[in-house]
Structure formats: C-alpha cells, structure tokens
Protein 1
Amino acid sequence: MTTYNNRGPKPESGKFLDFDHVTFWVGNAKQAASHYCVRLGFEPFAYKGLETGSRDVVAHVIRQDKIFFVFMSQLQPNIPKEMAEHLVMHGDGVKDIAFSVEDLDAIYKRAIERGAVSVKEPFDESDEHGTVRKATIQTYGDTTHTFIDRSKYKGEFLPGYKKPLHIDSLLPKLPVTGLVRIDHIVGNQPDQEMVPVADWYEKNLMFHRFWSVDDKQLHTEFSALRSTVVANYEETIKMPINEPAPGKRISQIQEYVDYYGGAGVQHIAMSTPDIIDTISKLRERGQHFLEVPDSYYDNLRKRLGNSPVSVKEDMNQLQKLKILVDFDDKGYLLQIFTKLMQDRPTLFLEVIQRHNHQGFGAGNFKALFEAFETDQAERGNL
Ligand SMILES: [Fe+2]
C-alpha cells in the first residue's frame, strides 16, 4: 500500500471544489428515485419532465444534505438515441459525475488541450435565479464528467428544474439516516486499464495519485484487484480506479466489467458522522448490506489488541450491524457496503466514517474474504 505526499503542481488557473451531483441513467427514473428515498433516506428535491416542458428526458433529483443524485430516463421511444443505447448496453448505472468548479473555462480548455475528449463545450444555462456555466468531457467507458460553475446562480438546483411534482407522505415517517457528503466514487476498469486511466486524471485534470494498493495486498487465495486513488489538488474529490488481477476465480472487478459492458462506476461512498446510528436507521428502512461472519470480529479484536489504535465505538454494536473496521497506527475507518442497487451485479453503495484515517479499506478485503473462507473450512467446504 502506498500513500503519496506529492500533490503535484498547483494548477495556475481553475479549481475543483467538490462533487456537485451524480447522474444515473435508468429505465424508470421515478421508481429508482423513490427506491433511494425510501431505503437510503434521500428526499425528493427537484424535477423536470413533460409538465415542465422537457419533452424527451425526465429527471428526478433527490438530496441528502450535500449529496445530490439525479435519476434520468428517456421519455420517447428510442429518443434520445444515446440514452436508449446506454440503457440496453449498461442497464441502470452512473452516466455522469459532476464537479463544482471555479474558472470552468480554464479547466475545460486545459483538459481538451491535453487530450481529453469534449462532449459539450462550455455554455450558459439561465433562469430567473441566474446563470450556471457547464461543460462536459468524456472519462472512462461511457462515463462523463460535467464541470459546473454555480457562482452566478441562486436557484436550488439547476436552471430548467422545478419542485418535485408530489410530496411522498411516507418519507417523514421513516427514521433520519444522516448521510452528509460523497467521500469517494470508484471506477472499475478492464484488465490493464487502471494505470492509463489514473494517468488521464493526472494529465488532463491535474489530479494526483493519492493512495494505491496492488494485488499482492488485495488478494485472497481466489481473487484479486488493484486500485489507485486520484484526487484534486485540494483533496476534496477522491476517485479510486480499480482493475482486476489474475486469481483462481473471477475477480469481482471482472464480473462488473462483464455485466456493465466495460468500464463504469462501481460504488459511491457516502460519509456519516455517526455510522452506528446511520446503519441502524438504514437497516430499519430495509436496506440490505453485505454480510460478514462473526469470525471477522474475533480476528479484528485480536488485531486491534496488538495495535496502538483504540476504536471509540462499541465493538459489539459494530458486530451486530456488520460494520467493518480498517486501521493503521494513527487512526481507523468504519465502513459497510450495500448489496447491489439493481439486478445487474454492477453498482453498489458504501457508508463510511473516518477517524484520522485516509485509506479506503484495503485491510478489509482480505479479512472479509478470509473470514468467509474460515467459515467454509469450519463446515468442511473449503
Ligand atoms: Fe470505497
């Protein structure tokens, strides 16, 4: 595992502020948005569709604190054609990761000059609340990045959007979940494409390598992966890039690539200041999470016993909720992964709480899978 201390040259112009929103292209935006609201604690925030004069595309925007997800579907048969083809190829998935930026034109111009492919040149969108400037470039697979400058806009979301059509009377009856912001968004790549993609972010967006781990560490007897995290200069945006590595069985990354039809977003990690409370509430809402056997916690207690780090949270609570712990000598993180968010084995979500630890859970990959294998062995099935 490597942590990097060199943030690279500070860009002379243009600044990435944060994740702005994530756009999903799905078959039925209305139902997808409702699912994320009910199970994950989002609330309807904005809408565009036939009622607002959007004839071809419908969008339901949902929000939880600083996290904004946009679910989009086509309205007409085969129009927009790009959305139709995307859905047939990829199923429901993340189409665009938008960043809020300062000096958008400088960021766009530099990226294009250095070789990024343009999807949409900088343009203004206005309504009675002001003007937003946007531009879009291609990144891995069919995924795109939109740059957004909101400095001259006072509206709630973006021009063209109105309030949601309906109030969902169920949502206020459900427990508050407390997710606050996007911590990182992970992109899966086909074999041998992690390094070129990480290089793409360094060269075109002036991101830098923040953290990486190779398959010597991220492996069990059966499967393996490599990961390199890139971040903007201020380290407010973190994008791990994964690729599969050879093992006895098919890597989970290869499974994703096979089912998504190429590179794409594997998971979105959202942070909470109180993961025990958040996961209790999400479980009350019926959200399912990856299971981990009790042997993981036996092993964890032993490893923590030999470490200078002390976990503040109640270990029995963490075990009951199946929350994972990763740590080094200075701090720890708590994390848990949802089951898949759609039928294809592609996108899932992560909930994370950091305590002075900037890693991404490398220690859990092995512990998690070995724990499964320990249980298999106890049953005589390994
Ligand atoms: Fe993650």
Protein 2
Amino acid sequence: MATEIQKNLAEKNAEYAQKFDQGHLALPPAKKYLVLTCMDARIDPAAAFGISLGDAHVIRNAGASARDAQRSIVISEQLLGTRESELHRDFARVSSRHTGCGMLTFTNDDAHAIVKKNLGPAALAELGALDFLPFPELDKAVKDDVEFLKVSTTIPDDVPITGWVYEVETGKVRQVV
Ligand SMILES: [Zn+2]
C-alpha cells in the first residue's frame, strides 16, 4: 500500500514526464559551474539562483558544508565531463549557506546524544566520532568554507569561488566573500 507521499511522487512525475522535452541534454553542466547549498526544504536553488536544467551541478547537504561536499566537488570537476582541456578551469564554485539553518541550532555533543537516545548504542558506535559539522556563526562558516576550498589542493587555484548567504525570510542572497 503506497503512502500519500509515494502516490504524490508517482502522480506528479507522470504529469512531469508527459510534458518533458529535455532528454537531449549533455552530461557535463552546460554553464560549467557548481552550486553548493543546504538541503533545507525552503530553498529552491533552480528558481532562487537562476539555474536552468542542465546548466550546473547542485550539491546539497545539511548546512551546505564544503568539507562534506568535497567528494562530489572533485567528481564534478574531475570526472563528469570537465576533465578535457581547460574546461574545469572555468568552473565557478558557489557556496551558499542560509539564515535560519538548522545546523546553527545544535552542537556535535547534542547530535551524538540524540543518536544515542533515539537509536541506541549500536548506532552511536557506528557513527564513532563523526563530525556533524554544525556551525555557530553563519558568516564565519561561509568564509571558512571558501577558505577551505581555496587552500584545497583538489581544486585548481584559478577557479573562482564565492560565498553567499541566502535569506529564507526574503528570498535574497547576500555575498559574503
Ligand atoms: Zn540549512
């Protein structure tokens, strides 16, 4: 028996697929850039950042952490059609955290305690010393991310990287660095 969410997925997709005409798009992002943003349900990256289908890689995780996204960033740049010639050098990288982020509301200790309480000691042990990468200050987190990416040997030095804050209250972005 399908849940309401599963039914919604199937029904809405049937409507979407009926009108879909973008099956010809190439694998590499046409505009050769990458956006990293939070998984927060209130962010619509395509609409808010002007990303058309096929234009850019959009990486999302809890808090828009660059550290957490490193695997996807390297894959985006080195393995998914951007390896040829100098193409990868044109990649602009945008890191966008946002106001009201849930990652501002807890510490690593809180997260580990909740895992232990709700899921038990086996789950706690499985996570080990996992860093949930919460952050107490928004703008500092954006600056730290950009710095992390700039000093990273996994990203060529001439790749432009900028850091932004998206305001869930207004829909506006503000460039931090
Ligand atoms: Zn968030």
Protein 3
Amino acid sequence: MNVENKTIVITGGGQGLGRAMAVSLAEQGANFALIDLNEELLSESVALVEQAGSTAKFYVANVTNEEEVESTFKQIKADFGSIDVLVNNAGILRDGMLLKAKDGEVVKKMPLSQFQSVIDVNLTGVFLCGREAAVHMVENGTKGVIINMSSIARNGNMGQTNYAASKAGVVAMTVTWARELGRYGIRVGAIAPGVIRTAMTDAMKPEMRERLEKMKPVGRLGEADEIAHTVKYILENEFFTGRVVEIDGGLSM
Ligand SMILES: NC(=O)c1ccc[n+]([C@@H]2O[C@H](COP(=O)([O-])OP(=O)(O)OC[C@H]3O[C@@H](n4cnc5c(N)ncnc54)[C@H](O)[C@@H]3O)[C@@H](O)[C@H]2O)c1
C-alpha cells in the first residue's frame, strides 16, 4: 500500500512506539487518527506529526469500552472519509508471578483483577478496534491493512502470565482475521518486538540494561524507529498477511 493520503489509525498514539510510528510515517503524507486515554500526550503527538508534514487528529477513548470504540471509529470515518490502516498498538503491562510461596505455603497469588486488566486492554481492546476498523473497511470497499502489536513475550515469559497470554492471543487473532478478511482484500499482520528503548528502559538501572543488551546478538536494545520501519514493511509488502514479524535483535529469553 502506498500510504499517501490514506488514513492511518494508531491506538496508544499518545507516546512511545505509537507516536514514533506516526511521526515516521508522516513523511509519506498519510493522515493520522491517534487514539489514546491521555489528551495532553495526544495533542503533543498531533503537533509532532504536523511538524513532519502530515495531517492528524486525536481521539480520547478507552479501547476496552465497546461504545467508545464504536463511536470513535464512526467519528474517524466521518472526519477522514475512510479508514485504510489500523495499528492496534495500545497495550499495558501489569507484571507479577502467578504465585509466591514461603516455607511451602502460598503467601500471594496473582489477583484476577491484575490478570483481567491486561487482557482487557491488550486482547479485548485489539478485538474491538480491529472489528470496528474491519467494519468500515468492508462497508467502504477499502482494501486496508490491520497491524496488531504482539511481543516476544507471546512465547511465555516469567512474571508475565497476563501479558504473555494476551500477546499470544493477538497473534491467533491476526492469523484468523487474515483468513476471514482476505476475501475483502484486507491484510492483517502482527509485530512481535523484543525490548525497545523507551522512557521505561532509559529509567532502568545501568546493570539491568547491560544484562538485557547482552541477551541480544546485536548487543543493544531496539529503537522505536526500527518498529516503525517494520510497520512500513508490512504496509508496503502486498504479499504479507497472516504472519508475525519478530523484531528483537535475536533476543533469547
Ligand atoms: N516498548 C517495548 O519494548 C515493547 C516490546 C514489545 C511489545 N510492545 C508493545 O508495543 C505497544 C506499545 O508499547 P510502548 O512501549 O509504546 O507502550 P507505552 O506505555 O509507551 O504506550 C502505550 C500507550 O497506550 C495507551 N493506552 C493504554 N491503555 C489504553 C486504553 N485502555 N485505551 C487507549 N489507550 C491506552 C497509553 O496511554 C500509552 O500512551 C504495546 O502493545 C506493547 O505491549 C512494546
């Protein structure tokens, strides 16, 4: 897909990877609809996209709320005329062990609320936004692209029962949607990043960062631009669908 004048919706576009994707793709002249919970961060992202030469609008919405998602996508369609690309990027972490034991006795277990909060954003949010984007693409005859953000943690990771399960589910939905929506000319792909340099990793203790860097054959963390580059690859390569790109510097966990 050539994204010039196309409408790209990015959830979690207020900061981090979502913002980096928008700013990076802005050079190609797409229009952006950025969804997030935080209005202040969203307006900063819109200003950065506009500086980079594209049009952008923001929408404050919670991706876990069905009514908000439905009305937001309707509004985006009304504002821009079409929805060509969705990057399902909003996601959260609420790490913790399944249980903790002392002297053979379980002293703590992961509360259902901690498990559910991650499933709500990372899995239900992806489902709701993907469904609404697909509705508009099919009704409009748009041969669009949906990209879902998974993670290397999808293979299972210590302390991430909730996150790993959600990110594995995202890949399963990706393959399912590619098969179901291919008949409408819609492609669906997923990206599974390793550890990418963000405000969170910048704030880590140096020894923790060094340990993470050593786990990667490339010897460093990933850059947000390298994830944006992967988004561009999926958009441009018309033969890509139903698969996940692992972009993790060869990390072995
Ligand atoms: N940064 C990494 O190293 C890394 C690695 C693998 C996967 N990922 C995935 O990439 C995506 C982006 O990660 P990031 O590091 O930029 O995260 P981030 O925390 O910097 O940004 C996520 C954004 O999503 C928004 N968000 C959270 N809950 C929301 C909700 N209910 N409704 C609407 N917006 C909501 C947040 O406000 C935030 O702006 C996530 O899905 C994450 O799991 C990131």
